[in-house]
Amino acid sequence: MVRDGLTNITKVEFLSVIQGVRRKAFKESTIIAAFKKTGIWPFNPQVVLQVVRDRQARRTPSPPPMPDSSPFSTPLTLRQINRVAERLEDIMERQDNIDLGFADDLQRFIRGSLITATELVQVKRDLQRTKMAEAVALARRHQKNRPLQSGGVLTAAQARRIVKQRDEDEVAKARRVVEQAETRERNALKRWFAAATKEGRKWRMTGKLSPMEVIESGKEKRLLRRV
What we know:
Order of helices and strands: HHHHHEEHEE
Distance between the termini: 68 Å
Coiled coil: 164-191
Number of strands: 4
Strand content: under 5%
Low-confidence stretches: none
Helix content: 55-70%
Keywords: Coiled coil
Region (Disordered): 55-75
Largest sheet: 2 strands, antiparallel
Mean pLDDT: 78
């Protein structure tokens, strides 16, 4: 359909062609080939296990932190939160006697943090697009002079100044809302990570977790000891 020049399709048009697409895409030979490739039929678990072995073989150790960076700094961006989430999941996978309740809580916290951070990024983008569209619409409506209710004429320059001031006020208001949301999210993350750090420290003191290793640039590896 794209080759025929179709770049936009409505819901009714989509429902009218979806069955034909399914018949062409989900053929018996295609389904059987996919089952065979993934080891579903004929049953062959080695297909999946070999992929896992290859990935484990390619895994490289994490590089040591930079001298001016701290592993305990609070993640504030979506990328930083993703990195911390991957690090926590990797630590949990390497622990044999981890408390199941704590692991479940940590997994739920990781998922909630990623979802909240992703939604906040999308809200910022949507807000920016909305404000830009409103500013363009207001500017177009005020291109021409219009009579004032109290008499006189509003010039195009005056209209642009009014639109600009109104837009700046709206953007400042929206920015305050976003900043408040970011502050709440940042405080929640700090509380969660403080609780996780406290629990991890308790586990290390009781011997449930192995001691933490500290690697500094130009120095030998040492164990982190806390009283």
